[in-house]
Records
---
Amino acid sequence: MDIQIVDQTANDVLEVSRLLRDTWLDTYPNSEHKITREEILQRYDEASPDFQERIEKRKTNVNKDPNVHSWVAKEGEKIVGFCTATKGKENRINAIYVFPEQQGRGIGWKLMKNALDWIGEADEICVNVASYNQKSIEFYEKVGFRKTSKEIVGDAGRFPSGAVIPEIEMVKTNG
């Protein structure tokens, strides 16, 4: 079946969250950095009031900001991938995730092309990636991103235990 890239809607938010949970479980557990499957599962616990609050906020805000846009990759009615990007003062690929069992089919490439086309001819586009996520680093390098020396410590990958997903910055320059 053909993969279609479409704008994310509020109706997609919960399914995208499940995609994030599955890809995080496949990608981020790391004993060296004390990142556990349990904490990832806790982050995406659909019964949690915090989770429900985040979902409702995302439903309200999805694709409302003209400088931030999100897409989903669909195979039929099933979401198989997700991407979000920011343009303007800072041009950034915020996230690209594809269900682990769907990886290697070109879905990430299609999502990336959509995001880069939407950002346009920016001088510089940044992305943060887990420093130990070699598969994603190689994907971004194939698209033209190069590692910088900047290490990122942000709240996106911070867990209640204090564990943090260590990230590096990669940059794609045009021209």
---
Amino acid sequence: MIIETRSAEQTYQLGRELGSKANKGQVFTLVGDLGVGKTVFTQGLAKGLEIQEPINSPTFTIVQVYDEGRLPFYHFDVYRIGDISEMDEIGYEDYVYGEGVSLIEWANLIEEILPARRTSIIIEKDLEQGFDYRRITIEERKA
């Protein structure tokens, strides 16, 4: 499915809608260039999970845990990992195969350890369509 948004608010609302429908154990992978709106989308997803605290990208901690919402939310940013073994060190599988909802930014960098069953999201800009235009591709991947 391809969805076009024309504002940060629309991107946020799309994330919120997906978050409101998310189930225990669901994994979202998120790929897009810097500045494309990954954090805005993630903030919406967290709001859909009824998380009230501010959501920031966990760039220096790899994973940020939010557990006061409808379901626990595990927000990964793997942009800065040096070696895939770092994912074991933070308990990656405990989160991803656990009871909460996981969102993994820059998921293409850890493709070999991603679960087969996941919701893949790609956010792209097209400046010819306008500064705030985003093309968001959502693909359900089954095991």
---
Amino acid sequence: MVNQLIWHGHANFQIITSELNILIDPWFEGNPSAKIGSEELQRVDLVLVTHDHGDHLGQAVEICKRTGAHLGTIVEVAGKCRSLGVPHDQILNGIGFNIGGTVDFKNIQVTMAQAHHSSEQGSCIGFIISLPRGGPCMYHAGDTGIFSSMQLWGELYDIDLAILPIGGVFTMDSRQAALACKLLNCKKAVPMHWGSFPVLEQNTEKFKKELEKTAPQTELIVMNPGDRISI
């Protein structure tokens, strides 16, 4: 089976491999861009959460409790989710993990990266996900502004696909995201966190122009909510 990526709008992505069904920031109910509800997901193996704002934590707790999925997130958010009913043995590393740390889960590796943003508990984070058997290395930046040490992650990892916010106001805008691609030296980029609310950037045209100027080596992949691509 070819690895697949589905965008459910905002920062909500689903990664499907031959063995695993992974969700990142599973905000379905209340998400104006989502085409399906969380109840339609019958099998989920791993849920990754970048921070505990409602539009990112979303239905993570309910999905884990209903499907038995494991939860990967920073320690403080893991504790919050455990207090809301996620069993201890479904939390990666028992208590979560932290920035710079890597955990293994059924042949994939998940590394936690920093993000510059606010959160109710803990710190906002991103994830670098390395799929097995020569599969792609993906970076989901979470909600963040640009930061110079993105370059270090680009040196440490051969990033095939970077998923970056471009909406502005709460995160990077298109200009910052294009420079982020240069720092990360990523092969491809999927923009996220746009179009969900009126205050955010409403299309990807500015990002396309900025990318052509700043990081022409990075291929732009534009997804619309509900789209599925092979990775």
